[in-house]
Amino acid sequence: MPSPLDHAARSHLRCADPRLGAWMDRIGELPLPQPERFTLVHALTRAIVFQQLNGKAAETIFGRVRQALGGGQITAKAITTTDDAQLRAAGLSANKLRALRDLAEHVRARRLPSLRVLHALDDEAAIEHLTMVRGIGPWTVQMLLMFRMGRPDVLPVSDYGVRAGAQIVHGLPAMPGHAELTAMGECWRPYRTLACLYLWRAVDQAREDPQG
Predict the structure, then answer these.
(1) Are residues 143 and 53 in the same domain?
(2) How far apart are CA 132 and CA 144, in angstroms?
(3) The total number of structural domains that make up the chain
(4) Contact predicate 33/150, CB 8 Å
(5) pLDDT digits (tens, 9 = 90+) for 91-150
(6) CATH number for the domain including 21?
(7) Is the dihedral of CA 199, 200, 201, 206 positive or negative?
(8) Residues carrying an active site annotation
(9) Which residues contact 60 (CB under 8 A, 6 or more apart)?
């Protein structure tokens, strides 16, 4: 059942950006992502494994890596005590293996925030802390903020789908750059996450119905 916050967010976006509102009417009601229970090491390991892979291949490799690490929730200790050969045999590239080792080292040295601290950090501070890990960039942290932590006002300006959706929704001759998209998204505050969901869906809908 849609929450009052979902209704408020959709109402705000329709009023603030009528062009986006027209696409929202075509797409239908989308809810804001809800916070999930997660462990940071498990979530970041999954993000590292999934980089530059399509969904099915990434899921397969992640499943193998998870089994190599003992199954269940992935821990820094499991990463540290599992040898390179096992992880490479699971399908992990050399670069991703180095990233996992770096993740485990950051955890061992207590350089990463606890989940309690992470929830208290603003988006930029969270990005600054987590991108210390090899292989973790701002986009990866923004996806965690949106879909794991359920933050309602995240705008990943480097995301291809968000930029492509903004081009479609606003009828632009080219995809907006980072600065243009940032300026465009000011009116979506404080629900830029939901705006992104609609921009992603607009790209899908435009492919399915190019004459629409």
Answers:
(1) yes
(2) 15
(3) 2
(4) yes
(5) 999 999 999 999 999 999 999 999 999 999 999 999 999 999 999 999 999 999 999 999
(6) 1.10.1670.40
(7) positive
(8) 159
(9) 91
| CA-angle at 59, arms to 57 and 62, nearest 5° | 105
Q: Residues 39-52, buried b or exposed e (16+ Cβ, 10 A)?
A: ebbbbbbbbbbbbe
How far, in Å, CA of 180 to CA of 185, rounded? 9
Q: Give the residue carrying structure tokens 């903004």.
A: 166
Q: Residue 103 and residue 86: Cα distance in Å, rounded? A: 17
Q: Are 78 and 69 in contact (CB under 8 A)?
A: yes
Domain range holding 61?
40-148
Q: What is the distance between the alpha carbons of residues 72 and 67, in angstroms, rounded to a whole number? A: 8
pLDDT of 49-103, one tens digit each?
999 888 899 999 999 999 999 999 999 999 999 999 999 999 999 999 999 999 9
DSSP 8-state assignment for residue 136:
-
Q: Is the dihedral of CA 179, 184, 190, 192 positive or negative?
A: negative
